[in-house]
Write the structure tokens for this entry.
Amino acid sequence: MSEHTKKHLVTAALPYANGPLHIGHIAGAYLPADIYVRYLKSIGEDVAFICGSDEHGAAITLRAKKESTTPQAIVDKYHAINKNAFADFGIQFDKYSRTTQEIHKKTAQDFFKVLNDKGVFEKQTSEQFYDKENQQFLADRYIAGECPNCHYGNAYGDQCEKCGSTLNPLDLINPKSTISGNIPVLKETSHWYLPMQKDEDWLREWVENGILDGKVHHDSKLWRNQVIGQCKSWIDGGLQPRAMTRDLDWGVKVPVEGADGKVLYVWLDAPIGYISATKEWAEENGRNWEDYWKSENTELIHFIGKDNIVFHAIIFPIILKAHGDFVLPTNVPANEFLNLEGDKISTSRNWAVWLHEYLEDFPNRQDELRYVLTSIAPESKDSEFTWKDYQARVNNELVAILGNFVNRVAVLTHKYYEGEIPSADFSEEENEVLKQAKKLAVKSGDLIKQFKFREAQNTAMGIARIGNKYLADVEPWKLIKTDPEKVKVTMTLALELVSMLSETFRPFLPETSNRLNSLLNDRKTLAKPELLFQKIEDKDIEVQIEKLANSKIMNEPEPEKAGQLPAINFEDFTKLDIRVGTILEAKKVPKADKLLELLVYTGIDKRTVVSGIAKHYSAEEVIGKKVSILLNLEPRKIRGVESQGMILMAENAEGELSFVSPEKDVESGSAIS
């Protein structure tokens, strides 16, 4: 293949290997990237689709500490889970690597050395937070406090998960160490900083107008408003130097003298993972990786969520340009956030639809979720996933429009022609129908190239709508006895539309497309018809809604700083009937790792309470415990067990739960006020 042939390097954000994937991740970056790549490949373009696990950074070490294991064990576990979930869902990477590979460490260190040797970095000594009890500097994620922007009480040192603001640890109000819970002290340390303020002028011209070094680099009209807006906001506010190293023992070691105990900042390390993964892919496939990173004939596209815009559209371009040999992204089509059932998706509160669990609960129905997530893709604003909407879109669109058309065509072809695909010349009427359908197929592809995936998929569905209308207008089931030649023409066209649907839907619904190809067989005989999609039943949806409801009960919202929650009056407080109770019996709730079923004596009665404490207490050790119980909470079924109250728990900075118990021995039923 000629080195001058246009190439496409498409990346999807490296997911942290500290937890499983949820539908917000999929809708935000991976599904749109997969659709884009599948389309480009379908029209014969040269594409490398690159991703992998981001396995460094403080988030990994935090998870390891919480689970009393090693960072390597954490990344090994979640790399495997996520890689398999991607594959099962039909996200078809050309390479899915990981940043703990030796090739990545060498690539990242070499990149750092080139920049350092060119004098790009500035070594500075500054005061940073230090945990005296644990004798270590605190990386961004080891610090929590009040967000200075939205005043959320549990923001991290690098980002507020509530309002999405990018933060500096020193910005936090009342910071605390997430390791010990103590107030950290400031201590001097040295780091290598990227002086981003020096790049403001060319960045502004590049982001706003698509101009780089006086030449047109990309069409800025194709960049999403939120990407340009967020970049302009940062640049207008004045870019600041940002440390490219951290005091940590887990990560890529800083490859210069005097850097003992320091690693590369994860947001320098991780994007370079795109380069190292491309090197792996190229070596495995007999390609030259530099053709995809250092050629003017390459289009580099980063698919990400909006929380990663700054890193992919400001910081990474700065270091790529500073290096001097690499192409800059042609587009960074970042999506907004996907919410869930009226609330923001939260991994810490388990408020999510996990991809691997969906694939277990709905086997062989990955295309249904792909369809729904594309239909509601948060391309220009936040959108929302609800199970009822999922059911409606599957039943009313996939089943009733696409599936219905294909099934009618297949059944009629077998009924009239014993499965042999007919051939007939089209009249002006059929040619017009075919012309309209082809126009939609072309438009769908054009919209994909413009990163308008919602509209592109809806346009593809228009072909099935045309087919259904055509069959309803002609009514071949009525004409078969009086005008069989007309029916032959009708069915020939209908089968042509099925073939067109197979190709047009391939980027969106790959498994469905494969099934349509199998149905059309050798284009001479039609395989035995079977339903493309099955209706989603109410009972299936009720199970998922109940699972989320249980999750909300088991996972209280993260504690806010005192004063952050809305004030209540004394009368509201007196409505709470909180008493001392004694746990008489306890047992695990089947198929629920976090739940214990407790029988509690309240001094008034004995009642059952389901509590999400099984990861903190065994059933045996809680029997006889004096606890605080909220009695007048509306009863609720959790995993089939009616819970008649709530046990009050305290949570420390590391997420460990403990009972709120009376200091002295008091009788069960004693009121708490």
Observations:
- The longest helix spans residues 387-417.
- The chain has four domains: 7-113+268-340, 118-247, 384-520, 568-659.
